[in-house]
Every structure is written in structure tokens, then in C-alpha cells.
Amino acid sequence: MLCLGIETSCDETALALVRDGVCVGAELASQADVHALFGGVVPEIASREHYRFCATLYDSLMARSGLTLSDVDVVAVTRGPGLLGALLVGVAFGKGLALGGNKPLVGVNHLHAHLLAAALEQEIRWPSLGLLVSGGHTHIYRMEGPTRLTLLGRTLDDAAGEACDKFAKMLNLPYPGGALLDALARRGTADPALFPRPYTKNDSLDFSFSGLKTSAATWLEKHPDVRKGAVAVAAAPTRDKAVAVAEQDLCNVCASYLTAVADTLRLKLELALKQEKEPVHGLVVAGGVAANTQVRAAMKALTEAQGLALHLPSLDLCTDNAVMIAHMGWLLAKEGLHHELDLSAIPRGQFIPEDEVFTDFKFRGQSAKSSCTTA
Ligand code: KG4
Ligand code: ZN
Questions:
Q1: Ligand 1 binding residues, C-beta < 6 A
Q2: In which element (H, E) is residue 337 found?
Q3: Max CA-CA distance within the chain?
Q4: Which of 31, 104, 316, 356 could tie 11 with a disulfide, CB 3.0–4.6 Å?
């Protein structure tokens, strides 16, 4: 089964083809440089950029893969969560292809697609614990299987990626700051006592990163020279040059901050493992922050200590991409699940319904839900 995936939830326009769980082509246009001029994603610009790129990327994907719409068996599109205008561009594009090509349409939950991305590269050991750490979400799940996810905990304020981006902004580093913080931290030495592990002295599986942000802001007020060093980094023409000109104090504070983020994630996962009544066999880590060097090391250490399989996607599959959307679409479609053309786009903060319908291509429209209790 060949599934075309479309991703336009935030600031990456991406299309990909997955055949029976294997990627056969992918295109991605990042808008990061455009939004960097404004210090963060500007929703209207994001929508316009998706509108500008969708058709071009589709043509290029098909030409490079040597395929046409008639070869596609199912069209999958991110239906949320994300920026509403941005989602609508992808959803409309997907509906057009589904209608024009008479193909089934599958609306994909972006968060579930992230969590299943590792399955493109390795066999997941079920049940697993799932950690989704992205720019907008920090969620812990119990994952019984590919379409059976239960949300156990979530952030009460900032997401882990947001906490990284905001710290980078405090330092005057360019948006999006997470990957640059990571690069700087790799040259630094962390002081594990410099920043707190916020909201970890409790029995909750929820997160709160606002205390970490405040503590970093207070520290920066007392150490203004670090900010001046960061200005030189931000002015460097390339990321490599930026890392080369970085001063040691800046690299050290980045390392300390990311240590606090990674350690907070580890502590909550340890608590989740303690609280689970039925054991899990693996840990799935997903989302942009799963690309972080310290987070990856912390998760490796945790799973080794607990005797769990670690399912970490390769770096390209951690951040937003359409391969994971096509893959998730294929997983749903092979269970006979799809959506009708009235599929809605769901912005961030709103509940995403499990409103797929079941089709065995004889009986269209029977209800058969996947069982995910997630936002
Ligand atoms: O999953 P993603 O690409 O988009 C969302 O769905 O949000 O995640 C983006 C987030 C941003 O906050 C970005 O700064 C962060 O992931 N990020 C990183 C790294 N790469 C991306 N944070 C820390 N270290 C990285 N290497
Ligand atoms: Zn994402």
C-alpha cells in the first residue's frame, strides 16, 4: 500500500511517500529562516508559505519517485494539532488530491505520527512508554500498540522545546534556538546544580518548565556578559561559525540548562515506570527535542539501567517531517480506518476526536475507532 503524507502543521512544508512502512521519497521546505526574522513563527506567513510550496513539492516528489497520483493508494494529511491556517492549507491540498484521484483520505494526529516515527526504523517492543517532546508538547503516554495510546502526563505550561527556544531568545540567539543551544552545549561543561529540576518533587506525571525559565532569567540578570557573547554568536553568518565564535561561559550555561531539561524528563519517566502497574518493555522518544544530544544520552542511560528497549528515531525523523505522517496514515489505512472529505483541521489546544471510519471497501461508513485517549 502506497501512502502519500502531507505535513503543514507549523513551519515545515513536507510531503513524503511510504510504501508498506518504508519511505520511498520525501520533500521538505523549512520556513525557519523566514520566521527567524520575527523571532518566532508568524502564523499568517506560515500559511502563505505552505500555500506557496505544497504543489511544487508534490510535483517534485512525484517526479523524483517516478510515480503519479494513480500509484497512490491513500492520502494522509496532518489534521492537528497545529496552527489552524497552516493546517487548513495541507488539509485542503490533501482533500483535493483524494477527491481528484478518488483515493481514501486519512487525517493524522501529528503527535501520534511523531510517536510512531521510530517504527519506520526499528521494531517497537509493545507495550512501551512514550515520551513526546516537541515545540508545543511534552507528553508521556502508555503505548499498547501503534494505535492504542493513553496519555499519562503533559506539560502544564511550556513544552520542553518551548523552554529551549525561550532560553535561546533570552540569550539573544536566533529562532529556533533548540538546535543551536544543543550545538553550543556540546562545547560546554554542565554544572548540574546551576538550574532546578522543576515540578519533580511530587507524584504527578505532568511537567512544568516555567520555574526553569525563571531561574535561567534570574541567573542571566546576574551574568549579563554571557548575553553579550551570544550577540556575537547570533551575528555569525553560519551555524558552524556561530559555534566557533561562542565563548566558554555561554557554552557552559547552555550545557547546564539542557542538563536540567534532560534530567527533568528522566525523573518523570522514572516515576511513570514506577507507577505503571503492568510492566512495559520499551521507551519511545519522539519530537524535535528527541534530537537533543543530552536528552538522547539521558534516555540511553535510563533504558540501560531499567533493562528497556530504547526506540529513538534518527535525527531527521525527530523534527517535523512528512515521512512520519505517511507512515501513520499507512498504519491507520491498513486497519481499514480513514476519514470522509468533511475532515476537520484541529488547532493546538483543542481535543482531537478519534473520528475515523472503517472501510473494508465493501461496507463504507461503519464506525470503528482507534482507542487513543489523547489531546
Ligand atoms: O517536533 P518539532 O520539529 O515541531 C513541533 O511539532 O513542535 O519540534 C520543534 C522543537 C523546537 O522547539 C526546537 O527548538 C526543538 O524542537 N529542537 C531541539 C533540537 N532540535 C529541535 N531542541 C533541543 N535540541 C535539539 N537538537
Ligand atoms: Zn512536531
A1: 10, 134-136, 161, 164-165, 176-179, 182, 287-289, 291-292, 319-320
A2: strand 337-338
A3: 69
A4: 31
Nearest-ligand number for the alpha carbon of 30: 1
Pull the grid cell for residue 75. 492520502
Q: 327 C-alpha to center of ligand 1: Å?
A: 20
Which ligand has the nearest atom to the CA of 315? 1
Instruction: Dig out the grid coordinates for 360 from the structure.
Output: 473494508
Q: Which ligand is nearest to the CA of 138?
A: 1
The grid cell for 118 is 521510530
Cα-to-centroid distance, 113 and ligand 2 (Å)? 9
Best mutation site among 110, 186, 285, 319 for ligand 1 pocket (most ligand atoms within 8 Å of CB): 319
Q: Best mutation site among 11, 134, 243, 312 for ligand 1, i.e. most ligand atoms within 8 A of its Cβ?
A: 134
Q: Which three cell numbers stand for residue 29?
A: 521546505
d(CA 110, CA 193): 35
From first to last of the 375 residues of the chain, give the pLDDT tens digit: 999 999 999 999 999 999 999 999 999 999 999 999 998 999 999 999 999 999 999 999 999 999 999 999 999 999 999 999 999 999 999 999 999 999 999 999 999 999 999 999 999 999 999 999 999 999 999 999 998 999 999 999 999 999 999 999 999 998 889 999 999 999 999 999 999 999 999 999 999 999 999 999 999 999 988 888 888 888 887 877 777 777 899 999 999 999 999 999 999 999 999 999 999 999 999 999 999 999 999 999 999 999 999 999 999 999 999 999 999 999 999 999 999 999 999 999 999 998 999 987 444 444 445 555 555
